[in-house]
Structures are given as C-alpha cells and as structure tokens.
Amino acid sequence: MSVVAATGLSKRFVRGTEAVTALDAVDLAVEGGEVVALVGPSGSGKSTLLAVLCGWETPDAGTLRVGPGTDPRGLGWSDLALVPQALGLVPELSLADNVLLPARLGRPAAGEDPAERARRLVDGFAIAHLADRYPHQASLGEQQRAAVARALVLRPALLLADEPTAHQDRGHADALLDAVLDAADSGTAVLLATHDEVAWSRADRVLSMRDGRLLPGPPS
Ligand SMILES: Nc1ncnc2c1ncn2[C@@H]1O[C@H](COP(=O)(O)OP(=O)(O)OP(=O)(O)O)[C@@H](O)[C@H]1O
Ligand SMILES: [Mg+2]
C-alpha cells in the first residue's frame, strides 16, 4: 500500500478579486522506499502540494490518505517528517536540540539509538562542530542541513522535502541526497520538490508541476 495517496487534490488561493489555482486535480501515490522528485517552475504549486500533503493547507477538493488516516495533522515525526522551504528550525533550540527534537517527541525506529543516528547525520552533513549554536548563528546552508538531519533522525515513513539542497554547494547537496536515499533504502517514501537536476537523476521517478497540474516525467 502506498504511504501517501491523493486523488483530485485542488487548491485555489483567493485574495480580493485575484484567484490562483495552485493545485488542479492532482493525483499522486508514493510507495515506501520510493524517491519521487517533484520539479517545475517557481509558482507552479510544488510547495502548495507539500503543504496540503502535510496538513498545513486544506484542499478545496480531492481525497488524501497519509499512512493509515486521512488527516495528516495528527501524525508524529516518525510517520511524517518535513523539510519546509523556510526550514522551520526552532530558534530557541541549539542545532543539536533541533535535530533531536523528533526523538524527544516521537517514536525512534526499532533498534536504533536516535542520539547515535543524529550524530552520524550531523557528522555526514559537516555540522557536528555547530551543535551548540542557535539557528541564527549558523549559515543558511548549515541550517538547511540541520533541518534535513532533523527530518531523517527517526527514519520517517514519509519524508516531504521542499528544495532541501537549495542552499548547498554540490558536495553538501550530494551528502544530503546520499542520506535521503539511504532513508529510502530503509523504507522511507520520499517526495522531494527540487530544482536540482542531480536529485532528479537519482530519483526513482520524476513528476512535473505546471500551473498546478501534475504530469509524469521531467519538464519538456
Ligand atoms: N497563501 C497564499 N495565498 C495566495 N497565493 C498563494 C499562497 N501560497 C501560494 N500562492 C500562489 O500559489 C502558486 C503556487 O505557489 P507555490 O508556493 O506552491 O509554488 P512553488 O512551485 O513552490 O514555487 P517556488 O519554486 O518558487 O518555491 C503561486 O502562484 C503562488 O503565488
Ligand atoms: Mg516552493
């Protein structure tokens, strides 16, 4: 059974006389262990799709199932982990505490010590030396790597990552992609909104968004 399944998802934003169809009858299913890259121009609806899938936005139409239920808002970090485009680190917590936050709130993967998993991730992302810094004391790329480590620390059933390599050089981007693919190897379903063509090439499947519509394959 797919980890996330959506049919006919639509979302319009209306402000005064202006209306934008951000999602237009989107059908999507992602299986456990599958890496799906979501590509498309700025404003095409990628972040809106992720926001609907995680429950931040309510769709106007369509059906949604994430894990066992239809309301993703009740899910914990081991079921659904997010790397928001704006990262969403907790400013009052150190980078180390941000990365460990899901482990404090949620259920670690069987047989895995989340503190050890966090150490491996931050080592691999070259941010171990920044453990005690607060987010505002780290570069944007470093903050983004902490946000990805936080999302991966519990090996979630579903990872929704919004341009997770946007603030990285190639080497750090590749380290992030390695870790995301490793999580997929252990069963995580991954949906990755990304402008990074290396990420597309490493995904199992590429989907394109254009004006709120989701189409199979990379953009033509
Ligand atoms: N809260 C909102 N109110 C009104 N319009 C919105 C809102 N959020 C997004 N939109 C509009 O919906 C469309 C899709 O936006 P979205 O953020 O999903 O695009 P995106 O593909 O993620 O773009 P980018 O690559 O720049 O991140 C855009 O036209 C955007 O202006
Ligand atoms: Mg976006």
Explain what this protein looks like in three dimensions:
30% of the residues lie in helices and 27% in strands. The chain has helices spanning 46-53, 95-105, 114-124, 140-152, 170-185, 197-202, and strands at 4-15, 18-30, 35-39, 61-66, 80-83, 158-162, 189-193, 205-210, 213-216. With 220 residues, the chain is an alpha/beta fold. It is built from six helices and nine strands, in the order βββαββαααβαβαββ. The strands form two sheets. Strands 5-6-7-3-8-9 form a six-stranded mixed beta sheet, with helices on both faces. It has a single domain, classed as Rossmann fold, CATH 3.40.50.300. The chain starts with a strand and ends with a strand. The chain binds adenosine-5'-triphosphate and magnesium ion. The site of adenosine-5'-triphosphate has 13 residues, from strand 1, strand 2 and helix 1. Magnesium ion binds next to helix 1.
Structural class: alpha/beta
Q: Strands across the major sheet, in which order?
A: 5-6-7-3-8-9
Give unreliable regions as ranges: none
The appropriate CATH architecture is 3-Layer(aba) Sandwich
Compute the average pLDDT.
95
Which descriptors apply to this entry?
220 residues; Rossmann fold; binds adenosine-5'-triphosphate; binds magnesium ion
Draw up the topology in text.
Layout: E1 4-15, E2 18-30, E3 35-39, H1 46-53, E4 61-66, E5 80-83, H2 95-105, H3 114-124, H4 140-152, E6 158-162, H5 170-185, E7 189-193, H6 197-202, E8 205-210, E9 213-216
Parallel strand pairs: 3-7, 3-8, 5-6, 6-7
Antiparallel strand pairs: 1-2, 1-4, 8-9
